[in-house]
Amino acid sequence: MPGRIYEATGGRLFAALYDRLTKGSEDAGLADMRARVLAKAHGATLELGAGTGANLKHYPDAVTELVLTEPSEHMARRLRDKVAESGRPAQVVVAPAEHLPFEDARFDTVVGTLVLCTADDPAAALREAARVLRPGGQLLFLEHVRADEPGLARWQDRLEGAWGYMAAGCHPNRDTLAAIEAAGLTVDDLERGRFPKAPPLVRPLISGRATRA
Ligand SMILES: C[S@@+](CC[C@H](N)C(=O)[O-])C[C@H]1O[C@@H](n2cnc3c(N)ncnc32)[C@H](O)[C@@H]1O
User: Fold this and answer.
1) How much is the pLDDT for 9?
2) What's the DSSP call for residue 27?
3) Cα–Cα distance measured from residue 132 to residue 60, given in angstroms and rounded to the nearest whole number
4) For residues 119 and 141, is the Cβ–Cβ distance under 8 A?
5) Using an 8 Å Cβ cutoff, are 106 and 45 in contact?
6) So what's the pLDDT on residue 5?
7) What are the CA-CA distances from residue 170 to residues 51, 103, 106, 118 (Å)?
8) Residue 147 above 60 pLDDT?
9) Contact (Cβ atoms closer than 8 angstroms) between residue 179 and residue 126
10) Nearby residues of 178 by Cβ (< 8 Å), 6 or more positions away
11) Does the beta carbon of 122 sit less than 6 angstroms from any atom of ligand 1?
């Protein structure tokens, strides 16, 4: 969860600027990537770290219930506004992905986009995602990740601290695919891509679906 200083300063600023900072990427293809991933969402659906609600407009009608979690109050305020504007019924719950206030096997779909780079403990977040998924339920993900090319991965390691300082605690060098598998989820659909109009450090992207056995 973002710390108190982040909440009091960078958290507010990051939330205020987020849509403007990401507009170029959204328009250049990120929004289409979101739509492709979220097309598979169905049933009772939980989103982790939903931010300002960039995914809201992409949820298909097969989603029968939508619960959006977000630990930052600054983001959650904007998220509530976005939900009200959208006309789509959705519940906003202030909670970090590492501690989800839901019973086991409550959801058919869990969604995480650009969030496992920032969560304090991605392994714990993924364990929680697996816990709240029903058997056969799916995690839909879209995440920027550690580069396969050793040269770029080295730069991601070197600049992790500086990047995190500027980008609200984001870690550019996480092997999120391995973390998903380590949480006991089976990746049955995987696409590798590039984060459009993003700095090279956060360009390697994965998207797809993992299923709880
Ligand atoms: C880069 S933004 C992505 C927002 C949104 N998911 C999207 O796709 O646009 C990262 C989000 O993760 C949230 N976050 C930070 N720590 C988190 C945690 N421990 N659990 C869940 N979300 C977290 C931040 O507040 C922020 O909203």
Assistant:
1) 54
2) I
3) 21
4) no
5) no
6) 47
7) 13, 28, 29, 4
8) yes
9) yes
10) none
11) no
Cα(111)–Cα(46) distance, rounded to whole angstroms? 6
Q: Is 112 in the pocket of ligand 1 (CB under 6 A)?
A: no
Residue range 5-11: average pLDDT?
Answer: 57
What value does the mean pLDDT take over residues 55-82?
97
DSSP class of 98: T
What angle separates helix 10-25 from helix 73-86, to the nearest 10 degrees? Answer: 50
User: In whole angstroms, what separates CA 166 from the centre of its chain?
Assistant: 18
Count of other CB atoms within 10 angstroms of residue 159: 16
> Measured in angstroms, how far is the CA atom of residue 64 from the centroid of ligand 1?
23
pLDDT digits (tens, 9 = 90+) for 172-191: 999 999 999 999 999 999 99
Q: Do the Cβ atoms of 66 and 59 come closer than 8 Å?
A: yes
Asked whether 207 lines ligand 1 (CB < 6 A), one says: no
Give the closest residue (by CA) to ligand 1 atom 17: 119
Distance CA 54, CA 56 (A): 6
* Ligand 1 site, residue 50, Cβ cutoff 6 A: yes
Q: Whose CA is nearest to atom 4 of ligand 1?
A: 51
Instruction: State the alpha helices, DSSP H only, in 26-121.
Output: 31-38, 73-86
**pLDDT, averaged across the chain:** 95
At 3, is the pLDDT very low, low, confident or very high (cuts 50, 70, 90)? very low
pTM summary value: 0.96
For the chain, how many residues are written? Answer: 213
